[in-house]
Amino acid sequence: MSIIYVLIPxxxxxxxxxxxxxxxxxxxxxxxxLEKQGMxxxxxxxxxxxxxxxxxxxxxxxxxxxxxxxxxxxxxxxxHDA
Length: 82
Hints:
The protein is built from three helices and no strands. By secondary structure, it is an all-alpha fold.
């Protein structure tokens, strides 16, 4: 029976903290747009696409440059071998 004297204040405290946090979340607009964040993962951002294209283009240019550098080296090696 004496445990009730401990459990009731703990229950009241946890309930009041929960109510406080709920009102804080409503006040700071945490519940305004619940669908936007869920849908945002389905679509690419414009800025992400631009940065990806720039990275891909630079990687392509780098790989083209490295391939063109390797071709004369391979030609030089084959002329020395002959």
